[in-house]
Amino acid sequence: MSTWIEVCDKNDIDEEDVIRFDHEGRSFAIYRSPQDSFHATDGHCTHENVHLADGLVMDDIIECPKHNGRFNYKTGQAKGAPVCINLKTYPVKVDAGRVFVQVG
Amino acid sequence: MSNRGMVIVGAGETGVRAAFALRELGYRGAVTLLGEEPHIPYERPPLSKAGGEAETVRAIVSNQSYGEAGISFRPGVRVRSIDRSSHELQLEGGENFPYERLLLATGATPRELPGLASQSRVHVLRTIEHAAAIRRHMGEGRHIAVLGGGFIGLELAAMGRMLGAAVTLIEVQPRILMRGVPEALALALQERHEAEGVVLHCGITVDTIDAGDDEVRIRLADGSDIRADALVVGIGAQPNVSLALQAGLVIDNGIAVDHHLATCDSDIFAAGDCCSFPLPIYAGRRVRLESWRNAQEQGALAAANMLGASQIFNAVPWFWSDQYDITLQVAGLADGATCHVRRTLSPQAQILFHLGDGGRLLAASGLGVGNAVARDIRLAEMMIAKAATPAPEALSDPSVKLKSML
C-alpha cells in the first residue's frame, strides 16, 4: 500500500524551485511550480547519476545541472538529447501547508 | 535531395548527435556515420574521471539505436580523401563513398612530446585504449607523473590519487589552468590537489625526459629528478584537419566554418573540436572549443543546416571539470574582462563573474563541491547570452537570486 510521506513545509520550497528529499534509501526531487503547484520526480537524472535538485527550474522544466538534459517535471517527459528516458513522477499533495509525496 | 545521403566523418559526440538530429528533423535519406575507432561511439568525459563505472565504457547511445533510427554506423573506417567535384569520399581500402552533404566531425588529437610518442610508459588521453593504459599505472604503490595542469592533467591527477597512486604534476606556466580559469579558482583547486597529496611543480621547465622500460625519469630545470612508473602528457590537442586540408578547405586553427558551421564548400560542414567558428556574442571572435556541450550543440545545428536551415551558431561556451568531489564550471569567455565580482555561496562554493566594457557580463566561473555552482552558472550563461549588464553589488550578494536578475 502506498502511503503519503511528509516532505516539508510548503514554504521550504521557493516558487519555481526544487529541493532534494531522501526517504528510505531513495532520493526524490520535489518541485514548486510558478503556478504554485507541487510535483515530485525521481531525484536523479536518467542520463547519468546526477541529482536534479541542483538543477534549474524554468516554468515546467527542470534542467539537469551537469549536462542540461531537460525534463517536464510535471509529466516526467524527457525533452530531447542528451536525455531520452522519461523521469518517474509521483503524486504530491499539500495538506495544511505541509507537502506530502506518495512514493509507493 | 538525391539518394546520396548525408555522410558524417567522425563518430564522437558531435558526429553521433548530428546523425540522430538528422532523423529527429525528419530527414529520410541515407545517413552514414563513419568512425575510425573500432568501437561503438562512446562518451569521452568519463575517461579522465574516477567514477564508479570508470572501468566500463559508456556508449553514447545503445548499439541497437543506430539500426532503429536507420543510421548506418561503420566503425574502423578511415577516410583517405574527399573529392569535392564528384561529391565522393575515398575510403582506405579503395571504396568510394558518395555524399550529398558532408559533416566533418573529426575531433582533435592530443599533442605529444617530440620523440616520446612511441614510448610505452608515456601516455596521452583521448581514447578508451589510452584510458586503460593510464589506469594500469594508477594503483597503490605506483607513481604517476602528469605533464600539464589543464583539465585533463588535473582530472587524471585526481583520479590517480583517488586510486591510491602517488602523483607528481608539472606545469610550465606559473600556475595551473592558465587558460580560461581565473587565478582565484585555480589557486583554490591547486590547494585542494596539494591537500590530497599531489606534488605540484609550477612555473618550471622540463630539461629532459628519459622513458625507459621500467620507469620514466624527468629532470626539471631546477634540478629536481622525478622517477615515475608512467608519464601522462596533457598539453592540449590539435584539431584533425588533414582531410579538410587535402580537400582544399580553409584552415584557421581548425577547419574554418562560418556562423552556419559551413566550410568554404557549401556542401561540407564541420563541427566540434575540429573546427573554428565565429561567435557573434563575442563580436564575431573566431574560437575553437573542445568541450562536450559544444560537440552536442554544434552537431545538432550542423545537422539542421545540412538539411537547408540557416541557423546561426551563437551558444555561450560552457565547460565543466570534475576533480575529487569538486566541480568547476565555466560559462562564457573571460578574456577582455576588466572587473571580477565574487559571490560566495558557501565556504566550499564560490562564483566569479567577469564583467567587460560597459559592465557587460562576459563569463562566470564557479568552483564547488558537487553541483553547488551549477544553477548559478546556468543562470549566468543566460545573462551572458542576453549581453546583460547586472549590477556588481547584486552579483556579489548571495541573497539576491540570480534568477531575479534575468
TrEMBL record, chain A:
Gene3D superfamilies, per the entry: Rieske [2Fe-2S] iron-sulphur domain
SUPFAM superfamilies: ISP domain
Cofactor names: [2Fe-2S] cluster
Entry keyword set: 2Fe-2S, Dioxygenase, Iron, Iron-sulfur, Metal-binding, Oxidoreductase
Signal peptide residue numbers: none
GO terms for MF: dioxygenase activity
Domain Rieske: 5-101
Family to which the UniProt record says this protein belongs: Belongs to the bacterial ring-hydroxylating dioxygenase ferredoxin component family.
Protein name per its UniProtKB record: 3-phenylpropionate/trans-cinnamate dioxygenase ferredoxin subunit
Species this protein is from: Rhizobium herbae
TrEMBL record, chain B:
Domain Reductase C-terminal, first and last residues per copy: 318-406
Top EC class for this record: oxidoreductase
The protein's required cofactors: FAD
The protein's Enzyme Commission number: 1.18.1.3
Gene3D superfamilies: 3.30.390.30, FAD/NAD(P)-binding domain
Keywords: Dioxygenase, FAD, Flavoprotein, Oxidoreductase
Entry's Gene Ontology molecular function annotations: dioxygenase activity; ferredoxin-NAD+ reductase activity
Domain FAD/NAD(P)-binding: 6-299
Protein name as catalogued: 3-phenylpropionate/trans-cinnamate dioxygenase ferredoxin reductase subunit
Taxonomic placement: Bacteria, Pseudomonadati, Pseudomonadota, Alphaproteobacteria, Hyphomicrobiales
